[in-house]
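Hi U.,

Before I forget, here's the chain from the pilot set. I'm dumping it here mostly so it's searchable later in email.
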Amino acid sequence: MTEAIPYGTSETRAGDGGPVHVLHFVFLLPHPVVRVWAAVATPEGLPQWLARADLLEPRLGGAVTLRWLNAEEGAEGAVVSGRVTAWDREAVAEYTVGTYGRIRFHMEPAPANSLASVLRFTNEFAGPDGRRLDNLARWHRHFEDLSDALDGRPADRSARTPERLGRLRAEYAART
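Structure:
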């Protein structure tokens, strides 16, 4: 991986059905916005690091179906459907899907370098606190895969270990 992914942060608030968690990640990628956009908002880019887009209608209100690459085939939540809830070409892609909730990518050129991008990520979902820690660790690992994919090294699923995810989860638990 070229760049280390900074730790994400989270906040929790009361919701009608229990706690609602909002995860935030902000980091610099040494790639122009157009490349980052292609990775997070196109059916060709998403499978290189996150999910296969079985369906992605690139417009506000469009349908989206994502097949998570890190989930076992047939497992609950392996395939989720929803809507594109924000869409501003090469700036914002937001999907609201199943129990994964709202997943928002906001991209902008880095302040002093038009060949680099700042990615602001938000994930809002309901669930117990353990799920918050799991999702912080999973998104962190996904963003390591995104960085590698942008550098020309698509995610190697065989190199993933439960130990790495467990370490990340423990690091997030210690930080909060």
